[in-house]
Amino acid sequence: MKTYHLNINNKAVRVEAEADTPMLWVIRDYVHLKGTKFGCGMGLCGACTIHLDGQPVRSCQTPVSSVKATGKITTIEGISANIEHVVQKAWIEEQVPQCGYCQSGQIMSAVALLNTNADPTDEDIDNYMAGNICRCGTYQRIRSAIHLAAARMKSESGSREKNLKQSSH
Ligand code: FES
Ligand code: FES
């Protein structure tokens, strides 16, 4: 056992764990955040997706010892404070989830996609989201929700720019 100092959702967290403990179990069992799901445990389904320094990673394949003390971990519970909230709203509006099990991983990947590509095509979405499996087959609604979130983000940043221009006159 070793002590690890982590930053999870902008909170300092100290855990005692074996070096090879996957972040999935650190998050769920040590930190008690249950939104990140265990699917395959082999890096194949995406249910356990979290962000490490803004990049989507499979937490079942990320040993705690590989995360630097300066690394910023974000889970589904940590994305609501800023722009990503738009993605969750779009998910609700498009009624994406069926059983819901894969959806936190889907949202984490969608947020990462929109952070790098503000206006993805269907092909971009399919390529980027290919590692997130949904056994209920909600792919069509996932696509629609990502397009909706992208449109909202675009119109929000347009109004922000307009307000900035008006306040500078
Ligand atoms: S549980 Fe991690 S990829 Fe499936
Ligand atoms: S909503 Fe059931 S697995 Fe995706």
> From the helix content, strand content and strand pairing, which structural class follows?
alpha+beta
Main beta-sheet annotation:
5 strands, mixed
Low-confidence stretches: none
- Overall average residue pLDDT: 93
Q: What hetero molecules are bound to the protein chains? A: FE2/S2 (inorganic) cluster
Proportion in helices: 40-55%
Spatial sequence of strands, sheet with the most strands: 2-1-5-3-4
Just give the CATH class of the largest domain. Answer: Mainly Alpha
What would a concise description of this structure say?
The protein is of the alpha+beta class and 169 residues long. The chain is built from five helices and five strands. 40% of the residues lie in helices and 15% in strands.
Describe this structure in words.
The protein is an alpha+beta fold and 169 residues long. It folds into two domains: 2-78, Beta-grasp domain (Ubiquitin-like (UB roll)); 85-168, DNA polymerase, domain 1. 40% of the residues lie in helices and 15% in strands. The protein contains five helices and five strands. It has helices at residues 23-30, 85-93, 103-116, 122-128, 139-168; strands spanning 2-8, 11-17, 49-52, 55-58, 72-74. Strands 2-1-5-3-4 form a five-stranded mixed sheet, sandwiched between helices. A hairpin with a 2-residue loop joins strand 3 and strand 4. The protein is globular and about 55 Å long. Bound molecules: FE2/S2 (inorganic) cluster (2 copies).
